[in-house]
Amino acid sequence: MTCKPTDQMHQHEALGANLVRRGLAGYVLGLLVMASFSSGLVAAEFPSAVAPTVLAPTGVLRVVINLGNPILARKDAQSGDPVGVSVDLASELAKRLKTPLALVPVNSAGNAVDLVTREVADVGFFAIDPVRGQGIAFTPAYVQIEGSYLVRDGSPIKSNEEVDRPGHRIVVGKGSAYDLFLTREIKQAQLVRAATSPEVVRYFVENNAEVAAGVRQQLEADARSIPGLRLLEGRFMVIDQAMGAPKSRSEAVHAQLQQFVADMKSSGFVAASLKRHGIDGAVVAP
Predict the structure, then answer these.
(1) Residue 51's pLDDT band (boundaries 50, 70, 90)?
(2) Is pLDDT of 6 > 80?
(3) Rounded CA Rg of the chain
(4) Domains of the chain
(5) pLDDT digits (tens, 9 = 90+) for 75-93
(6) DSSP-derived secondary structure for the chain
(7) Of the chain's two ends, which shows fewer C-beta atoms within 10 Å, N or C?
(8) Which of 243, 242, 270 minimizes the C-alpha distance to 123?
(9) How many CB atoms lie within 10 A of CB 13?
């Protein structure tokens, strides 16, 4: 059977359209492959280019904020909202990722560690410690703060070296960085644990203990409000404060967070935040 000119024309048009569709499909596929390859290179060379959903798989960046460390975060007196260096960093990270931010405030470091380890939160702010490192991958430190001892004015203890003696009770915040550190270091004195770091001095006073241990700035603030207390000179440890993500997350997540912290230090963001919140005695980590 012969085809009419009209039929032939339709056939040619259909064939041409099919070829065009195939050509476009191949072209688009090629672009996608090239884009995937290129993005892989960017992610490998520049960790900050990793897709936001990798660090925030739920579509919301969940950041735990420990209000038990007033150097890094506290409740605003007016609004009651968390404010501080760690809140500033969390906000900037969400901004860079173009991801909604959900702050998860807690009152102790132990709670913060638990939430991030169980992946209930994506990111947290912690003192670096090998015990916590079992479930959390830390960035390099962004801030360093001091751990100090507090005693009564009439105490015979005059130096840090005299603290670790038989019969001395040292009050620490349960699960805090200095609790973990002193658990390894103290050989003769007894560690007594208050529920959280902000409760250490009150517990120390009410139970007539010999020594309170904590972040220097917190102890100084408590000593100003409670007469008859004094800080021992010097420090018993330097506390490296870092950001951390669940250790179970990918290397891409950890690399992205490390790059973010490096950027925040080198750009002056951390130093500016410390100054803005009036934090004395804490310094940007080298």
Answers:
(1) low
(2) no
(3) 28
(4) 51-143+243-284 (3.40.190.10), 145-238 (3.40.190.10)
(5) 998 999 999 999 999 999 9
(6) -PPPHHHHHHHHHHHHHHHHHHHHHHHHHHHHHHHHHHHHHHHHH-GGGS-HHHH-TTSSEEEEEETT-TTT-EE-TTT--EESHHHHHHHHHHHHHT--EEEEEESSHHHHHHHHHTTSSSBEEEE--TTGGGTEEEPPPSEEEEEEEEEETT-S--SGGGTSSTT-EEEEETT-HHHHHHHHH-SSSEEEEESSGGGHHHHHHHTT-SEEEEEHHHHHHHHHHSTTEEEPSS-SEEEEEEEEEETTS-HHHHHHHHHHHHHHHHTTHHHHHHHHTT--S-EE--
(7) N
(8) 243
(9) 10
Residue 76 identity: D
Model's pTM, two decimal places? 0.68
239 φ/ψ angles, rounded to the nearest 5 degrees: -100, 115
Residue identified by tokens 């916590």 is: 132
